[in-house]
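So, is this right?
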Amino acid sequence: MDLRRKPTKIFIISGPSGTGGDSVIEGLEKTGRFSRVITTVTRPRRPVEREGKPYYFVTVPQFKRLIADDVFIEWAIVYGDYRGCTKAEIKRLLAGRKPIIWKVDWQGVQTIKRLLPRTIAIFIAPPSFSVLEERLKQRGQDSPQTIKERKKFSQEWLTHTDLYDYTAVNEQGHLDQTIAQVEAIIAKELES
């Protein structure tokens, strides 16, 4: 019997705002079989969020200081806010035994796959761009200007789907099926 431990695998799960990426990740987290990368962000904390769930919150000057100190494995400006993952966060999770779930934008996918080429990226896609637009409006948490900016960024994001290894379409009202599809992709990759 081979008692050597297989390396921990990293799975990126991402898609533009309104595709359901966060909901898919939350569904996977509930199983207790995965560890989630906690990203450091400069955006304001929402009422339902707390430090470390699902982000670490810092100010822009603090984030810039962390960049200068070479603390991040990757970072980007997304929707006007700084977002990044510290090297310490990745080291902490790689020391564990659970597969790692990491949420980043397409720029992060590009960077991570260059630095950690065995990472598997799963794109959470909307059924159509019009459905994505409607989801952004229905969330009720963004101003019309923010929705306009997110739509523009989403259009750009959709031109980078070639960076991903898999795509899961999150059909309206079928989140459980999308979670099951992503779980099946992960299970397949863990077996290989």
